[in-house]
Q: What sequence folds into this?
């Protein structure tokens, strides 16, 4: 039996056809220039927007004001989802307490304050980089469900026998309350001054107080536990929230990426959904 022989003249044509086919398949492959598949952002753009990047990894520790607990917990989850291999460690407390901790060397990478005054303390010590304002907030009166003390105004908080709880003056929510009190004829006699706004909210929710001064966002996050009573004088004490990378941050790239998420369009939308105002 004779073996088949190739036609030498047909060989170049076959090679040309195979080469053209490989070129077409390569152009259509995912990620190829001009192809229809998914293409990922470059590392620089990803880090700047808080989106996933193979270069982002490790842990970032965020110190944040107590009033940010709910929304920053969601933001941390979003950040980790976009950046596999990263971990956001959150620490919440009154802004003044967090300033003290950072001043004493606590290992924070990012600091988010509920006011500019406490951030300025760290700036004066050259402990943070240039801050960026990312949100605003105002006070609201919180009362137990049903409002048993019939509180309807800021002036009612000064009525005899009313058990009102506020933040301590060094805490942003306390400083705001002091400012409002100074601009009105109401002289509050609080039964307790707390180190964070969440502590004030807790005393109201438990029925230990007839009313407390907290942020609008705190009332929104405690639906069913407290009722909120807006009052016009609150506009006199708008709190601006700044965020900054701590100078001793162990992972500057992660810190910058988290701040970028908070201050970017997605972070701003999440903050607005939580009740915060624009910076």
A:
């Amino acid at each position: 039996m004779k073996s088949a022989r190739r036609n030498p003249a047909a060989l170049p044509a076959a090679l040309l056809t195979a080469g053209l086919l490989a070129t077409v398949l390569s152009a259509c492959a995912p990620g190829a220039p001009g192809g229809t598949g998914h293409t990922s952002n470059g590392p620089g753009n990803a880090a700047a927007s808080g989106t996933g990047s193979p270069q982002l990894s490790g842990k970032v520790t965020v110190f944040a004001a107590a009033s940010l607990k709910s929304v920053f917990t969601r933001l941390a989850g979003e950040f980790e989802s976009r950046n596999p291999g990263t971990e956001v460690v959150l620490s919440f407390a009154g802004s003044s307490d967090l300033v003290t901790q950072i001043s004493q060397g606590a290992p924070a990478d990012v600091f988010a304050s509920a006011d500019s005054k406490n951030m300025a303390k760290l700036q004066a010590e050259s402990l943070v980089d240039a801050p960026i304002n990312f949100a605003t907030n105002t006070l609201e009166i919180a009362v137990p469900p049903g409002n048993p003390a019939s509180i309807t105004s800021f002036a009612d908080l000064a009525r005899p026998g009313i058990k009102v709880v506020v933040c301590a003056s060094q805490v942003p929510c306390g400083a705001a309350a002091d400012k409002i009190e100074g601009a009105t004829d109401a002289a509050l006699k609080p039964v307790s001054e707390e180190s964070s706004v969440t502590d004030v909210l807790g005393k109201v929710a438990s029925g230990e107080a007839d009313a407390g001064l907290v942020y609008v966002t705190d009332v929104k996050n405690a639906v069913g536990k407290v009722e909120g009573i807006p009052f016009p004088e609150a506009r006199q004490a708008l709190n601006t929230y700044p965020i900054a990378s701590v100078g001793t941050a162990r992972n500057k790239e992660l810190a910058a990426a988290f701040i970028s998420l908070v201050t970017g369009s997605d972070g701003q939308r999440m903050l607005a959904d939580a009740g915060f105002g624009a910076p």
Notes: The chain has two domains: 55-136+240-273, 139-236.
